[in-house]
Structures are given as structure tokens and as C-alpha cells.
Sequence to fold (268 residues):
Amino acid sequence: MTWEHLERGSSPVDWCEGNYLVSPDIAEFVNTISNILFLLGPPFLIYLFKDYGRFIQPAIHLIWVLLIVVGLSSAYFHATLSLLGQLLDELTILWVFMATLSLFCPRRHFPRIFKRSRKRFCLSMTIFSIAATGLSFCHPAINAFALMFLAIPATYLLYKELKIVQDERVYRLGVRNTTILIMAIVCWINDRMFCDTWSRMNFPYLHGFWHILIFISAYPACVLFAYFFVNDERPESRPTLKYWPRNDFELGIPYVSINYDKKFDDAI
Fold:
């Protein structure tokens, strides 16, 4: 990558929001600051999932860290509209998706070729991610559209799991999550495809709403797949979907509580 790809405006992608209207240093102000949830949310999720990370899967914290990287990369891209920023933004989304799928997809959904081996599955997902990373440099203008197709297998897997889940709270979270994802995609498409219409209405900020809605959709999706994973592979841990700050308030922050053995805890 040459130095010109670091320059402001070097990306072929420019979203609907007008450039440098609020600050001379930030190209798309609303699109930049709307990534704030990606920075504020994950540290708290690391706290809520401390028992999950200790007793079930420490790599859950990798997902939260990657979400922070997504937020930083997206903010950098929208602040500069550089090609480097665009690629960082898109590739971090790809890697957080593939990491979540690799670590938490229930084994029964693995293609037969992997023989229910998570090691083989993770290796194949890593190879795919590396290949996709290389291809992303070929036609940067279409990367965002290609990433949208990742929602298809994720939604299908979620649908398959929700069909058999017995916990009604988990089911309701899955339905809400899917609804918010659809709303986020509608915002993304409108900002990308119908910019002139929204600009005439003096509201070229739907991509900023996409950032907010996709985080509100993405982190519960990770929570759901973390629940499916432990329910499938460690059912003796009796995972429970809970909410912060009040467990009876289902519009709070969801997390997976592990009912571990206190004696085991003391032995550690």
C-alpha cells in the first residue's frame, strides 16, 4: 500500500453526510461520533462476562476487544475518508464475524467435512478470512456490499437455534435482535442508495443510525451465540440469560450467567 492511500479522501466510498461541515478535521462528523457505543460497551461486557471467560471460554473477551477495534477503525475511516481507514473498517468487521462464528457456532451446524472438529473449523475460517482480506484490496468500492452478505448465514444459524431453544427469554432476545438488524440494514441501504432523497429532506445521517443500530444488534448476537455454545457443549454449567441492571428488565444489557460449582471455584 502506497502513501497516497493514507491521504484524506483517498477512499472511493463517500457516505451521504456532507464532508467537513462541523469540523475542519473530521470529514463526516456524525458518522464518526456515532461509533461511541463500540468504545463504551465492550469494556462493560468484559466485566459482565468475567465468569463466562473464566469457566467456559476465555476467548469471549477477544470478541469484545475486536468490537472496540471496529469502532476505532470506523471512526478513523469516517474522520478521514482514507482508503486505509475504509479497509481497516471493513476488515475488522469481517474478522469479528469470523471469530464469533469460529469460536461459538454449535458443532451440529458444522459441515460434515469438519467431522465436528472445532479446530478444523477454526482453521478453515481463518484461511477464508485471510483470503477475503486479500481480495478486499482488489475492488474496495464493493467491499461493503460483500460484507452485507455475512448477515445471511448469521441470520440462518440464529433462526435454526431459536427453533429449538427452550428459554423464552433467549427466544425473545433473538427476535428483537433480528428486528434491530433489519432496521440497521434499512438505514444502511437508504443512506447508500437514496442519498439524494434524504439530502433533500435535510437528513443525510442514516449511516450514523446504522452504527448505533448495528452495535445494538451485534453484541446481543454475540451473547446469543455464546449462550448456544455453552448450552450445547457445557450444559452442566446451566447457562442463564440475564440482564443488567435489572434482570426483569429485558431491554437492559444482556449477558450469559454461568451457574458454576462453588467448590470448583474454591479449588481454583
In short: Confidence is low (pLDDT under 50) at residues 263-268.
